[in-house]
Amino acid sequence: MKKKNDTPFWKLIVGRIMAAWALILFIATMLPAIIFYLPCFLLDDPVKASWHRHVSRVWMWIYLHLIGCPLKVTGKEHFNAPTNYVIVCNHNSLMDVPVSTPFMPRPNKTIAKKSFAKIPLFGWIYTFGSVLVDRKSDESRRKSYEEMKRMLAIGLDMLIYPEGTRNRTQDPLKSFYDGAFKLAVDTGKPILPVILLHTKKVLPANLFFYLMPHHLEMHFLTPVSTQGKSAGELKEEIFTTMWNYYQEHA
Q1: How far apart, in whole angstroms, are the C-alpha atoms of residue 197 and residue 215?
Q2: pTM for this prediction
């Protein structure tokens, strides 16, 4: 009997060919994009974040279509409120970051691994759009938390993946860490949940060098006020909302 996560041999072959094609295209499209990112060296936030998002959106729109993964976005009307948000997003795949950050309706920063900033050229792009953290360092975590508060204070949205690492289970979500919800309570900012669909099918976490084209979706849900709620209560409420939504729409 086959296990649920078994992948047919033919599909593995196609997936590896597509992964090679996607890697070639990523490099080929990144090199000219780098030119347009250069102003980020001279700009300060929030202008830098705005410029970074515009360039990233054009680049990723082209790239996603070239690899057969067009993106549909719903719920952008939730960003009409006169406030910025702590945005929490499910995390199934390495495809999540290039999909989510550029296609947010407003300039934003995402919390990101410091180690990725060391990748040549791409590290610049990654750093411009991120608050970097070394999770092994208490000092780095403290500084990144203060930097996220600063980003919210200057009007940027702050995007966080509360599962921490990619969800390799068959469940809609892994358990959430407290950080995003503590940040929302400490700053008084509402939380806006986001559900990404099908990124696990495109770039599954349990397969090495594999990509399968599939349409992608990003759904913005109704914002949740932090007023009168603890971080624990918010975490439970948001987790339940996102779990149920994912099950209904996956």
Answers
A1: 9
A2: 0.94
User: What would the pLDDT profile of 59-102 be if each residue is shown by its tens digit?
Assistant: 999 999 999 999 999 999 999 888 999 999 999 999 998 899 99
User: How far is Cα 88 from Cα 174, in angstroms, rounded to an integer?
Assistant: 13
- Widest Cα–Cα separation across the chain: 58
Q: How far apart are CA 153 and CA 126, in angstroms?
A: 22
Spatial distance between the Cα atoms of 47 and 66, rounded to a whole number of angstroms: 29
Q: How far is CA 244 from CA 54, 94, 235, in A?
A: 32, 23, 14
Can you tell me the distance from the alpha carbon of 52 to that of 48, in angstroms, rounded to the nearest whole number? 6
Distance CA 60, CA 47 (A): 20
CB distance 148 to 109 below 8 Å: yes
Whole-angstrom distance, CA of residue 91 vs CA of residue 103: 16
The Cα 122–Cα 135 span in angstroms is: 21
The string of pLDDT tens digits covering residues 223-243 is 999 999 999 999 999 999 999
The answer to whether 250 and 201 have CB atoms below 8 angstroms apart is no
Structure tokens at 101: 């950050």
